[in-house]
Structure formats: C-alpha cells, structure tokens
Amino acid sequence: MLENKVALVTGASRGIGREIAKTLAMNGAFVIVNYNGSKERADETVEEIRANGGSAAAFQCNVSDFAQTEAMVKELVAAYKHIDILVNNAGITRDGLIMKMSEEDFDKVIETNLKGTFNTIRHLTRQMLKQKSGRIINISSVSGVLGNAGQANYAASKAGVIGLTKTMARELASRGITVNAVAPGFIDTDMTSVLSESVKEAAVAQIPLGHFGSPKDVAETVAFLASDKAGYITGQVIHVDGGMAI
Predict the structure, then answer these.
(1) What is the pTM of this model?
(2) Known CDD domains for this protein (predicted)?
(3) Which of 19, 35, 42, 82 has the fewest CB atoms found within 10 Å of its own CB?
C-alpha cells in the first residue's frame, strides 16, 4: 500500500508514535523514527520494524526547535531524495489546573505539540510542493475538541493543531498535498497506564463503546490517510475515540 514511500513520524519511539511507525513500515513505507530524548527506545522501534521485514532508521531532533527541525529536513531530503508522508505525533503533557499552571508548563506544551507541528510542516512543505504530492497527518486529541479540565495547555495545543490542519489543507490542496488530523480519545499507552482505577472508570463511562482504544486503532487510521485510498480526503479531523466526541 505504501511501497516506495518515505515517512517521517515524529515522537515515534514509544506509544502511539511507535505503533504508527510500525504500521506504516508493515504497509511498505521506509520510516524515519524521529525522537528527542530516548535513543534507546527509538533504536528498539527500528529493530522491531526490521525484525518484521520492514525498513526504518532513527533520527534525533527536538521538533519544537525551529532551526533543528530545518536541519533535520534538509539532511533527510539529501539522504532519501523525497519524503512522502509526515506524521506529526510528538507531544507532551504538563497537566494542572489553570490557576496553578506555571508559565513554563504552558509554554513547553505549546512549543512541542503545536509549534513542533508547525515547524515540520513549514520546513517540509517546500519539498512536497516540488514533488506535487504528499500526505500530512497531524495527531490532535479529543481534548482539543471537547476540552478537558486540568489540561488547558494540552487542549489549547491540540485545538491549535486542528486549526493548523484545516488551514494547511486549503493552502496545499492545489499541489496534490492532503492534510488531515486524527483525534484519539483514551488510548492504552504509558500515559493512561498511570491513571488511577477510579479515573479510568470515570473515563470509560464517557465512552459509548465502553472501553479504551489501542495504539493500533490510531495507527491503522493514520495508515489509511497516508495511502492512495484517502486521496480525496483533506482538511478533516478523524475521531478515534470510541464515540466520546459525538
């Protein structure tokens, strides 16, 4: 489905990002596993992809840094000649009620989740415009759609990703580049594993399907949007949330 495609997945060393990288590789793409902090986890992701017959390489870059992201894109284009798929998955949380939230915690989340998405799109679109093709998939969140108490910074960043997605879809459509967002709900990852049972039960009560999703649910949606099957879909937000945002 994605043979001869090169995909860059940010924040791909664990959780949803790792599953996206593995799924794109399983569908034939060569995957660049971007990471910021953990080289060991990124290398494990690459090794797992290769062990299953796929192709991948790890690349360190803090996507919240404009200059670093520019340098990464230049190096990747020089090495691989084309990048066909960009998945903006890198994200962090610094939860807290707004009255207690520090400026640093607000800024850090916006810098990684929203500005990081802007940075990669900003620097990669020139290459995609030359190619007259491309798939950009931004990972938002149900929190960016509904809001969530204690996540003013995170919800704001993910709502911003949706606005950025719709605007980029309009700007880039004439050159054959689609831009869509995926908004996961509660997904079984390291982030949700630390939640107390009472919090998990309260969350499940808000989900019409009655259970948390899996990283694979998100990854398969991303793979579809990255494929030719989704060639006439752009500017959309696909909810992978068990019905939470109905």
Answers:
(1) 0.97
(2) BKR_SDR_c (cd05333)
(3) 82
Kindly state the percentage of the chain with pLDDT values over 70.
Answer: 99
User: Is the distance from CB of 185 to CB of 210 less than 8 angstroms?
Assistant: no
196 known ligand binder:
no
Contact assessment for residue 152 and residue 111, using Cβ atoms and an 8 Å cutoff: no
Catalytic residue among 35, 80, 154, 232: 154
Q: What is the pLDDT of residues 67-103, one digit of tens each?
A: 999 999 999 999 999 999 999 999 999 999 999 999 9
Phi-psi region of 81 (alpha: psi -120 to 50; beta: other; left: phi over 0): left
- 154 assigned to active site: yes
Residues contacting residue 215 through CB under 8 Å, at least 6 positions apart: 15, 16, 18, 19, 20, 187, 188, 189
The annotation status of 159 as a binding-site residue, yes or no, is: no
Q: How far apart are the C-alpha atoms of 93 and 99, rounded to whole Å?
A: 17
Is 187 assigned to a binding site? yes
137-157: per-residue pLDDT in tens? 999 999 999 999 999 999 999
- Residue 62 assigned as binding residue: yes
14 has binding-site annotation: yes
